[in-house]
Amino acid sequence: MSVSRRIKKWWSRLSEPGALRMLYHGVTLAPRLILHVASLAALAGLFNACVPATRYEEAKSASEVEQAGRERAQAELSETKKELAAARAELAQGSEKLAETEQSVSASKLESTVAVKERDEATGLVEQLRSELARVGDNLRSYAQQKADLEKNLQVAQARKLELERNEAHTVAIARLTRDLTSALGDRVLSGDVTLDVQNGRVVLSAAQELCFNDDSTVREGMGGVLTGVSRVLALYPSSKLELSVPSNDAQQRGAALLAALGAKGVLVTRATLGPVSSAGMVLLSFSVD
Questions:
Q1: Of 188, 187, 219, 189, the residue nearest 283 (C-alpha)
Q2: What is the pLDDT of residues 100-141, one digit of tens each?
Q3: For the segment 28-81, what is each residue's pLDDT rounded down to a tens digit?
Q4: What single string gives the DSSP state of each residue in 174-220?
Q5: How far apart are alpha carbons 267 and 119 in whole angstroms?
Q6: What pairing do the DSSP bridges indicate for beta strands 272-274 and 282-287?
Q7: H or E segment and range at residue 282
Q8: Nearest residue to 257 via CA among 290, 220, 285, 228
Q9: What is the three-class DSSP state of 274?
Q10: Calculated CA dihedral for residues 145, 151, 156, 162, nearest 10 degrees
Q11: Counting Cβ atoms within 10 Å, is residue 14 exposed (0-12), middle (13-18) or buried (19+)?
Q12: Distance of alpha carbon 112 from the chain centroid
């Protein structure tokens, strides 16, 4: 039988009501009983004065046996107390370890609870950040689209501005060219021999072919002043060019004669060219404006 089982067995016996008290009284009263018995026996021997020797020896042996039993009982009781104290110490140590284990388990549970809470909080924070990032991404995409639209509109506006500026500059140039031609031609414009007009962004000088050519398709002397004014204006506008259009009858010959007359006034050949045949029966001098 193991020590722990014997301890439990003795402890259960000693735990019974009155067991320890009976054991204590038995151990403490046994010497007194033996002493009283011996005293009574001695008194009985004195009174009777005839106690046999054998009975005395028997009483003495019984006393010695009783004494030995008492000593054994005391030894067993002492050993039991030691074992009980050891069992209590072991029980206290086990209880202490159990308390430490429970405390460790409680701490682990607390740490686990805190970790779960922190994980949940971190998960919620991550989800919130994801939502914020998605919202920021949507805003950035919206801003990027708005920026692209604004840049496109700005490019359109700049192109329109450039076009307006070019148109304005072109309009100003046409106005100036018309003014200078009117000034250079003077009375010929006022008399109606020649007219100035703007067609398709060009200044067009028109004159009847009878005023420009002789019957043999040569240039009339009266056109000298007109051609001089034209050459002066071309000199004022070095980037402009002149296109000539004459009626269909003898168009090639008359056109060549007119170009030669302009060349004689100092107009470079590269600045005056023959255009399509005039269908209006008029001689047309079309000035380009850059």
A1: 219
A2: 888 877 777 777 788 788 888 888 888 888 888 888 888 888
A3: 544 454 444 445 444 444 444 444 678 778 777 888 888 888 888 788 888 878
A4: HHHHHHHHHHHHTHHHHTTSEEEEEETTEEEEEEEHHHHB-TTSPBP
A5: 92
A6: unpaired
A7: strand 282-287
A8: 220
A9: strand
A10: 180
A11: middle
A12: 31
Sorted by where each begins, the domain ranges of the chain are 3-114, 186-287
> What would the two tokens of residue 253 be?
């010959």
Listed residue (273, 210, 209, 215) closest to 240, CA to CA: 273
Residue type at 230 in one-letter notation: V
Phi, psi at 113, each rounded to 5°: -65, -45
CATH match of 186-287 with 3.40.50.300 = no
Helix residue ranges, H only, the chain: 3-14, 19-48, 53-185, 187-190, 209-212, 224-236, 251-264
Residues whose CB falls within 8 Å of the CB of residue 193, separated by 6 or more in sequence, listed in order: 207, 208, 211, 226
In whole angstroms, give the CA distance from residue 165 to residue 162. 5
CB count within 10 Å of CB 80 equals 17
Residue range 164-194, pLDDT digits in tens: 888 899 999 999 999 999 999 999 999 999 9
Cut 0.70: pTM above it: no
CA 225 to CA 230: how far, in whole Å? Answer: 9
Q: Which of 284, 225, 230 is nearest to 255 (CA)?
A: 284
Helix (H) or strand (E) holding 245: strand 242-245
Write out the two tokens for 172: 């100003």
Terminal-to-terminal C-alpha distance of the chain: 127
